[in-house]
Amino acid sequence: LHVSGRVQGGGAVPPGIVQIGVANPHYGLGLHAASKAASAHGGSVSLANSPSGGAVATIAVPLCGA
Q1: Which of 3, 34, 46, 65 is the most buried if burial means most Cβ atoms within 10 Å?
Q2: Which of 46, 42, 45 is nearest to 62 (CA)?
Q3: Please, what sign has the CA dihedral across residues 45, 48, 51, 54?
């Protein structure tokens, strides 16, 4: 199961921001919490630049029995 959300804006996602936010809850508390929750269910969190501007965050978790 993949769930994505897009945040509009002119900013770009700097390289390594997901790793920083996941590793350091003081830098990216939302990323840290989302990553911990996804990881607890065998999933992951990714963050990428959107071609139309802003960023796209995706949480991926395996389906039960899949």
Answers
A1: 34
A2: 42
A3: positive
